[in-house]
Amino acid sequence: MDNRAITLLGLHALLLLLPSSHASETCSALVDNSEASFAKELLSSIHEPETVAWLKSVRRRIHEHPELCFEEFETSQLIRDELQKLGIPYKWPFATTGIVATIGSGKGPVVALRADMDALPLDELVDFEYKSKHPGKMHACGHDMHVSMLLGAAKLLKEREEKLQGTVKLLFQPAEEGGGGALRAMEDGALEDVEAIFGLHVYPLVPTGSISSRSGAFCAAAGSFKAVIKGKGGHAAVPHLTADPVVATSMIIVSLQQLISRETDPLESQVVSVTSVHGGKVFNIIPQDVTMQGTYRTLAQDNGEKLKRRVKEVIENQASVLGCKAAVEFGTVAYPALYNDDKMYEHIKTVGSLMLGQDHVLDTDPSMGGEDFSFYTGKIPGAMLNIGVAHEDASKNFMLHSPHFNPNEDVLPLGAALNAALAEMYIQSAYLGVSTKLSSTQ
Ligand SMILES: [Zn+2]
Ligand SMILES: [Zn+2]
């Protein structure tokens, strides 16, 4: 892409965000502000060999010491140490281990970038020098990559701090994997004064060097359930003298699937999965009870309230058909569906085109995965994107949450630069007139 094309793209980005009355008066200022050199500066600074080595070392140190939901104490310490070395002020704790670092003028517009920090309860099976040193824990969702990229953005933005006509808040958030760390961080004031937020997630189905995103539905609302089916145990040879919770559970599992096939509009996306069933010990005893767990997910705007109600009704009523009783519990934190804001998505698309070239900004379908970033977008405009981490050698590519997950580390500088550009260009656009909410009040 030549410089002129890049400048025009950048201009397009800002014009998209501006009310039309502001467009002509800001044109000349925008053209003068060469975004071609802006992108080049960011990319060349972050690609310095020393910086690339630092990004990798941060990722690898975190990868070797994975920590689960709300236990990210060493990770949090590592981040604070690096922020201190970069001379960046921060506040903590938010939601036990979270950190909010601040770069810029201290005035509005204020934009946030988010990285999650937690790992998964999983044994790593990647043969890798920096493999997890803690059995049963692994960074299998790439949150170690997210932290490294956000620290990289911190470095870039700090170097450009005098140019920032607003403030960037870097939110290092705990407990994305089921703990709802985003909600807790927000309750602790992590988003105070923030008017927009961006987040990225590594994604192994997108090639390294590309990103993907979409406007509107991006991730599903997701909740979990657990049920204990109580029956009456006895000898397997006399089932008529028992109330068999094994058969009741089997029928519950089948009936739950009919919530999707018979009660859901075929054009809507919903999922119910039963993922764990435990009951009985031997072949000749019908057990007293069976415990089952599962998840329900939907892209519907009601965040799964109807589905949740029906899951409970089906489990309880189907259990009673077999003379059993069911006690149903739902997980304490259900994630709302994540909807990317239209304008924030356009911003991602334009910044992505500037940094990577238009051909590397891909569309994506919504995912039925959950993402607690949705708590932020429920409050302020925001959007997420997938950043590609696929290797050219397809045999190395495994999905998120796989014990073989092995993202391409070469993406770290790009992720850092993209984060920084999303924030700086948002501020630039907002400063020029789109969002004056904070600038006019300070
Ligand atoms: Zn995950
Ligand atoms: Zn994740």
Automatic annotation (TrEMBL):
Cofactor: Mn(2+)
Signal peptide (from-to): 1-23
Gene Ontology molecular function terms on file: IAA-Ala conjugate hydrolase activity; metal ion binding
Domain Peptidase M20 dimerisation stretches: 223-319
Keyword NADP attached: no
Cofactor note: The Mn(2+) ion enhances activity.
Protein name per the record: Peptidase M20 dimerisation domain-containing protein
Record organism: Adiantum capillus-veneris (Maidenhair fern)
Organism phylogeny: Eukaryota, Viridiplantae, Streptophyta, Embryophyta, Tracheophyta
